[in-house]
Amino acid sequence: MTPNSTIYAGDFHDMLLLAAETERRLPAGQRPQAQAAYWPDMKLDWMSYADNDVVPGLGFASAEQVDAYDLCLRIVNVQPIADARRLLWAAAHSAAFRTRGIAWGKLAKIRHCDRRKVKRDYELALTTTVLAWNAE
Questions:
Q1: 3-state helix, strand, coil in the chain (%, to 5)
Q2: The model's pTM
């Protein structure tokens, strides 16, 4: 998808979910040195240390994923309402690496309202963002 092309709400929803997954694959920010501890954390029991089994983590984001993430950031910034932008990203992050989709109940607890209202607000934010992007 190019930055000047027309997008649809379903495509933008999929793009948001992939952008949230890409954001989790990006490297963590630099931590200031003042917060570093001088002594390593020592566990009291020798059985507390894990085995030598290696657990693979997330892979790094590819260049195409980062480009799509950047485009998604530009599209979300078209939305003039800050609460709608936060809802779009919260919904995308609640569905990242999750097979069941967006966790409407969890978002409803955070926003202190019903899950159906959260879903309705999300769909409204999604369509208004797409309409604002296509109008440019």
A1: 60, 0, 40
A2: 0.77
